[in-house]
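Incident review: delayed structure delivery

Summary: a single-chain prediction request sat in the queue longer than the usual turnaround. Root cause was a stuck worker, restarted by the on-call engineer. No data loss occurred. The affected request and its eventual output are reproduced below so the record is complete for anyone auditing the incident later.

Affected input:
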Amino acid sequence: MSYQAVMNCYRLNLVCALILSVAFTTSVAWSSETATKIRIVTGNLSTGTHQNYDGGEGARILKGLQADVVLLQEFNYKSSSETDLLEFLSSIFSGKAFFSRENEPTDQIPNGILSRFPILESGEWEDAGMPNRDFAFARLDIPGSRDLWAISVHLHSKNLVVRRAESEELARRIHALPATDYVVLGGDFNLTSRENEILDVLAPEVSERNAPTDTNGATTTNMNGKKNYDWILTDADLAAHEVPVSFLSAKAEAPQLNVTSFPNGLVFDSTVFPALSRLNGIQATDSRSPGMQHLAVVKDFLVPAQ
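Output delivered after worker restart:
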């Protein structure tokens, strides 16, 4: 599909960006005169037997984590009509929210981006190695003079040759983006460890500054706890603004003394998270519900308003 055709597919969704007044505790994204804190979450969080989000567990996790930008895989919900997808968006975000999703008939398990920030343009880059999905991208209008390019991917699960070709194409595409903008690449890379040639191919453009962990220090994201499937990689400019992922207590008294913090980012597992009551609506079993693909990965950035 041509770039213009892809843009036409998305235009209606972007014009109809959701505006809601659903009650919610707090929004992670906040701005001052000097900086904006942005929480980025990636997740292949579909459940059940049909690779979709109908069960509600994935949406509860994303809402509870108070994501500002979500890089989503297997983005199917009910019939995946515009009405259904806006309903899914409304279950995660309060206030204004926007989404972009692959929309070709062959995209059976599409990638997508959800965002509190307006989407200036979006589309998909062809993944020649996968017949049922491509690489989804969106340029986000974050506060300040620099935009954020968010890219959501789901690399081949078995073929290393194909994964290398995918990573080479992604590196080429990212290299062509405006050098003055920020870039985040995230998703299901289907990698078994943190030492991998795919990361070496991508490293000149995007990389991981710190390995996120769960409460017990594990970095793995698959269900048996043995593989590093899911990643958030950033360009050097955005990486310089990474900060610990923290969850403040809802208590009014001395909230600064009631912080659950992960200095290198978070691999979220609801079954071991120590302060689940701080995460609105997440159930203890959500991360291990039947058919759950992987665990979510969370990174926070304090981006200067320049």
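Verification: DSSP finds six helices and 16 strands in the chain.
Action items: add queue-age alerting; document worker restart procedure.
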